[in-house]
Design a protein that fits this description.
Elements lengths: L9 H10 L5 H27 L4 H11 L9 H7 L4 H13 L3 E5 L7 E5 L1 H31 L2
Antiparallel strand pairs: 1-2
Helix pairs in contact: 2-6
């Protein structure tokens, strides 16, 4: 998250640029706006997921399991390679998704040390019910924030 509400003025950025040769004023300004916008969007999405009794991590795991329909199952290692979380966070999140009935976790037939994780029909239904709201939040946010914030400053 990016917690700075008021971004630096052009005057302040110019003062820093005068002191630090490495600073590219336009790039810094663009980056600050991008971080602020991303933070605002993430907050909206997190509120949406909370209202649906999910978290962003739980949602992303459902997406990961759904986006490769040619695969019957994925291992925790497969999911971990596609998600930027720690192994303990993944383990806890998988357990909560299993408890909710959104995924199944079974010993892999090919290797009993590995687990096969599958999206259940309930998990597919939950994901499909979430996606319209998710896409709507993103579309509305991009229409109302991205160009406005990049142009101001």
């Amino acid at each position: 998250m990016f917690f700075l509400k008021d971004l630096p003025s052009d005057r302040m950025l110019s003062a820093y640029a005068a002191q630090f040769d490495e600073m590219d004023t336009a790039a810094t300004k663009d980056a600050l706006h991008m971080m602020r916008n991303a933070s605002l969007l993430l907050r909206e999405l997190e509120a949406y997921f909370r209202s649906q009794q999910l978290s962003q991590t739980r949602f992303l795991i459902l997406i990961i399991l759904d986006r490769e329909p040619e695969r019957d199952a994925m291992s925790a290692k497969d999911i971990l390679q596609r998600l930027d979380v720690s192994k303990p966070v993944l383990t806890t999140t998988l357990q909560s998704l299993s408890k909710a009935g959104f995924i199944t976790i079974d010993k892999a037939e090919r290797d009993s040390r590995s687990l096969d994780i599958r999206l259940t029909s309930q998990g597919k239904h939950k994901l499909k019910s979430l996606l319209p709201g998710y896409f709507s939040i993103i579309a509305t946010f991009m229409r109302t924030n991205s160009s406005k914030d990049l142009d101001s400053g």
